[in-house]
Design a protein that fits this description.
The complex is a heterodimer of chains A (176) and B (127). Chain A is built from five helices and eight strands, in the order βαββββαβαβαβα. Chain A has 176 residues and is an alpha/beta fold. Chain A has one domain: Rossmann fold (3-Layer(aba) Sandwich), CATH 3.40.50. Chain A has a six-stranded mixed β-sheet with strand order 4-5-1-6-7-8, with helices on both faces. Chain A has a two-stranded antiparallel ribbon with strand order 2-3. In chain A, a hairpin with a 2-residue loop joins β4 and β5. Chain B has a single domain, classed as Dynein light chain 2a, cytoplasmic (Beta-Lactamase, 2-Layer Sandwich), CATH 3.30.450.30. Chain B contains three helices and five strands, in the order αββαβββα. A five-stranded antiparallel β-sheet of chain B has the order 2-1-5-4-3, sandwiched between helices. Classes of the chains: A alpha/beta (176), B alpha+beta (127).
């Protein structure tokens, strides 16, 4: 069986754990603990990693790794991203400065970005349309990066699968 | 992060106690389970906030490994390195679950360090 590794990164509360849970064929492994940071509007937060698996058929499987979003856990980012085929950056558009959030993860994974397929998923765009997807695209272009930017509702399996498809398509194009 | 004053005081006391009493202790951090430094004591210039984040990750990963293996709730995680040990102990308080991380060199005895860390964990759990 061919295994591919895709890593989920992005803002706290953007839904990395939920996204992996939405598409994993097995109950995901999670390391959520009670959140004590009042600036985050959620009860639990990931402090280690999430793990799930997605069978693509034809002997292909995607192993899904979720990272903690907070910068204090950045020591885990490079560990979890080792040998990744692709990177998914999830951004919560309801946060104060989503573009700055994206910049944090682009910096955090800058050594990985030249080598992997990356897709950016923007959440809560229906209630928070700004910044627009174009603005995210421009932000990436200013940094010399061309990555697909998609709206995503991480609770919807089809939305998350589309992001995985996008990552795999880019990876295939790189190999070709 | 808001913890009651008496718990903060206990955490400071236990961090100082462990640094003083454990042979070869280099640093102690008491942290929330989501990686915030609650109290620390150290002999070397170690970044307590970073240690706190790492302690919570180690504790969470240890927990998931122990549960997946059917071993129940873990109490302690030990990293044996060339120059010493990193020991992380969970403090499963219902209101404010915590972790304690102890860094030692190899001049002390691991068993004694575990015993003293266990004592401090119980003190913090009951505080």
């Amino acid at each position: 069986m061919a295994d591919h590794k895709i890593v989920f990164a992005g803002s706290p509360g953007a839904g990395k754990t939920t996204a992996i849970g939405a598409i994993s064929d097995r109950p995901p492994i999670v390391t959520d603990v009670r959140n004590s940071d009042s600036s985050l509007k959620k009860d639990f937060t990931t402090v280690g990693m999430d793990y799930g698996e997605l069978d693509l058929g034809d002997g292909e499987r995607v192993r899904l790794f979720g990272t903690p979003g907070q910068a204090r856990f950045d020591f885990l980012w490079s560990i979890l991203a080792t040998n990744a085929l692709g990177l998914v950056i999830l951004i919560d558009n309801s946060r104060a400065d989503p573009l700055q959030d994206l910049g944090l993860y682009l910096d955090g994974f800058k050594h990985l970005l030249p080598e992997v397929a990356c897709t950016v998923g923007i959440g809560r765009t229906e209630s928070h349309p700004s910044p627009s997807l174009d603005e995210f695209g421009d932000f990436l272009a200013e940094r010399g990066l061309i990555c697909p930017v998609l709206p995503v509702d991480v609770r919807r399996r089809d939305d998350v699968l589309l992001i995985i498809d996008t990552v795999l398509a880019q990876a295939e194009a790189r190999i070709d | 992060m808001t913890l009651p004053a008496h718990l903060l005081n206990h955490a400071r006391h236990e961090a100082e106690y462990l640094l003083r009493e454990v042979g070869g202790a280099r640093a102690v951090v008491v942290a929330t389970v989501d990686g915030f430094d609650v109290a620390h004591a150290r002999r070397h210039d170690l970044e307590a906030s970073r240690m706190a984040a790492m302690a919570s990750s180690i504790a969470a990963l240890g927990q998931v490994v122990a549960y997946e293996a059917g071993l129940g709730a873990p109490r302690c995680m030990i990293v044996e390195a060339a120059e010493g040990y990193v020991i992380v102990r969970s403090v499963p308080r219902r209101d404010h679950p915590l972790v304690i991380q102890l860094l030692t060199d190899r001049t002390g005895l691991l068993g004694l360090a575990l015993q003293q860390l266990s004592r401090s964990g119980q003190q913090l759990e009951a505080a």
